[in-house]
Amino acid sequence: MRTWLLLLVFPTLLKAQCDKTPSATPTTWYVATNGNDANAGTVLQPFRTIQKAIDTARPNDTIELRGGTYVLNNELRIRTSNLTLRSYASEWAIIQAPTHIEDISSTIWYSEPCVVGGMLENLEIIGGYYYGLKFENNLGWDEPIVHGTSNITVRNCKIHHTGRDCIKLVPYCDNIAILNCEIHHSGVGIANVSAQNAEGIDNVNGDQMLVRGCYIHDIATTGLYAKGGAKNTVIENNLIVNCGEFGVMLGVGGTDNDLFDPNNQTYYYENFDGIIRNNIVANTKHGGVGLIAAVRPQVLNNTFANVGSEALAPLYIGPNEVWVSETTTIASPCVDVKVINNIFVENEASTLPMVRIRFHQDYQASGISGTNNEIDYNRYFRNTTSPTYTYLQTSNLTFTQWRTTSGFDAHSSEGNPALTPQYHLNSNSVCINAGKSLQNVNVDYDGTNRTFPLDIGADEWGGNSLTVPPPVGVIGTGLRTIPCVSSISTTDLPSTIATNQRFETNGAITATNKVLPTGTATYDAGTYVLLKAGFEAQKGAVFTAFLEGCGNK
User: Fold this and answer.
1) Which end of the chain is less crowded, N or C, counting CB atoms within 10 A of the terminal residue's CB?
2) How confident is the model over 459-497, as pLDDT tens digits?
3) What are phi and psi for residue 335, nearest 5 degrees?
4) Nearby residues of 548 by Cβ (< 8 Å), 6 or more positions away
5) How far apart are CA 380 and CA 360, in angstroms?
6) Segments of the chain scoring below 50 in pLDDT
7) Separation between Cα atoms, residue 99 and residue 416, nearest integer Å
8) CB of 126 within 8 A of CB of 160?
């Protein structure tokens, strides 16, 4: 597994054009629609074009865009590590590219695989013949070490109306965090007319991708997926609605065999150790969630509503199909699957199975294998008729037959989960306190601390609820977090916080000073500090994180 620390310790692995020496003092460069590229790039004399600022900046610099729309004649190419590109404070910059000019394949392209570190923040990214945002690798460049753009954070951005995918990750683009963004209307360009392949986020073998607090909607095909052998994906606390295919997937069949890691070219597993939790997924024509040749996937405490209207099943588990040669196609199963504490509400007009674990007849391949599979504590509902279930070669099973045949769902149930119009639990829901206690599910969709026993679904009843869909002016779901920071000092915080606020870090947390014993904060050494109303702490209290990957796994 590749980590931030490894890349920082061995900078000689990077290509020369990315290995710039940072400025002695980080510099902020400015761009304005009425600027001039002959200017000095200061706040009073801004550049005119964003590319001029990018080419001028050095590692650890910041580029701030004054408000307005920047229409591109060429794609923006970022070749500099640790560069921040954002809107000027209290202003909003829109970066727009056409969708009908193939030479402008992406609106923003991290074009050098050796770029490590950086941020896009508070921007609106529109268009691109193929992609709104693409991260690049050096596969096929005839270089001794394969790597890709890594450690980039995309935060509080709107990315939409793209030719095909809104965001594209290619192999070896690791540690990409997409936080509190709105991603919508993929596949509106001519590039998708025949392809019909336009995801919100398309990740092919990028490890440690984190997608949190995003509002993903009106997607031509699947909301987001991580395939091709991607490792340690975390997809959590997102709202995913109106998708032409699946809402979310770990693994997708048909990935090209040369995109997998060399050590994964025996079974060609599509995903390793991915986690999907605390998401609301609604109105998908295919399944709410799909698991394809995924190893140790976890689907925990999600709410899938009005899914599976046209194809497959609300919960679909199957083998992949990887063409290796004229005589060989590999079809590998999912291994050690966990699907726990989820609500599945099937489209009421659907006649598809509620759950389908596929058996691939052509390759005589099962969709599931392993000795540690657990599908349980779920709630299944179809409004008009009782659902059916498919287990391998046996279809049209009743719920009782499904339990007996598959051995799954001993503690699950069928029936109305009593959801509100905003996909939260009503006070009379049987899903309250009906879930299994899980150590790696600490908050709900809204960011509210969960209590044991857990509720089933994305919502823990009784806490604060986010508005679904988010109100105008909110980017992402409205989830209030400060993710992936190296330290949090209470000297930088107000002494009183009126509402719940959760601070998450890059893994483990240590406290150099203790929080006052007032019961106003919850501290978990493995994941987070949760500040409750009226939070107080000793002056100078600091919570420090080790840089070992992002999220609260």
Assistant:
1) N
2) 999 988 999 999 999 999 998 643 333 344 433 333 333
3) -130, 130
4) 3, 506, 507, 508
5) 25
6) 1-16, 19, 481-553
7) 44
8) yes
Contacting residues for 339 by C-beta, under 8 A, at least 6 apart: 299, 315, 374, 375, 376, 378
Q: Token digits for 121?
A: 């923040």
Exposed e or buried b for every residue in 212-247, given b needs 16+ CB within 10 A? bbbbbbbbbbbbbbbbbbbbbbbbbbbbbbbbbbbb
Asked whether 160 and 166 are in contact (CB, 8 A), the reply is yes
DSSP 61-108: -EEEEPSEEEE-SS-EE---TTEEEEEPTT--EEEE--SS-TTS-EEE
Cβ neighbour number for residue 49 with a 10 Å cutoff:
18
Pairing of strands 501-505, 528-531: antiparallel
Q: Which of 124, 112, 234, 132 is nearest to 173 (CA)?
A: 112
Q: Provide the token pair at 41.
A: 């790039």
Token pair 């998401």 is found at: 279
Give φ, ψ of 510 to 5 degrees.
Answer: -120, 145
In the three-class reduction of DSSP (H, G, I as helix; E, B as strand; rest coil), residue 502 is classed as strand
CA distance 486 to 481: 14
C-alpha to C-alpha distance for 83 and 245, rounded to whole angstroms: 35
Q: Which two tokens stand for residue 81?
A: 């590590």
Specify whether the CB–CB gap between 157 and 124 falls below 8 A: yes
Q: What distance in Å separates the CA atoms of residue 431 and residue 451, rounded to the nearest whole number?
A: 13
Phi, psi of 381 (to 5 degrees): -155, 135
- What end-to-end distance do the CA atoms of the chain give, in Å? 16
What whole-number distance in Å separates Cα of residue 416 and Cα of residue 418? 5
Asked whether the beta carbons of 20 and 37 are under 8 A apart, the reply is: no
Rounded Cα distance between 273 and 350, Å, is: 31
Nearest of 544, 547, 549 to residue 529 by alpha carbon: 544
Half-sphere exposure of 78 (CA within 13 A, CB side): 28
Measure the CA angle with vertex 281, ends 280 and 283; round to 5°: 140
Q: How many angstroms separate the CA atoms of 459 and 432, rounded?
A: 9
Q: Pseudo-torsion of CA 141, 147, 148, 150, nearest 10°?
A: -160
Which helix (H) or strand (E) element contains residue 54? Answer: helix 50-56
- Mention every residue, 6+ apart, whose C-beta is less than 8 A from residue 69: 33, 93, 94, 96
As given in the structure block, the two tokens for residue 244 are 């032409």
Task: Report the b/e string of 266-276 with b at 16+ CB within 10 A.
Answer: ebbbbbbbbbb
Buried b (16+ CB within 10 A) or exposed e, 510-528: eeeeebeeeebbeeeeebb
In the three-class reduction of DSSP (H, G, I as helix; E, B as strand; rest coil), residue 203 is classed as: strand
Residue 524 Cα distances to 122, 301, 507, 546, angstroms: 30, 20, 11, 14
Q: Which amino acid is at 490?
A: T
CA distance 9 to 343: 44
Q: How far is CA 530 from the centre of its chain?
A: 22
Q: Which two tokens stand for residue 12?
A: 């000689």
Let me know: does 278 contact 321? Beta carbons within 8 Å.
Answer: no
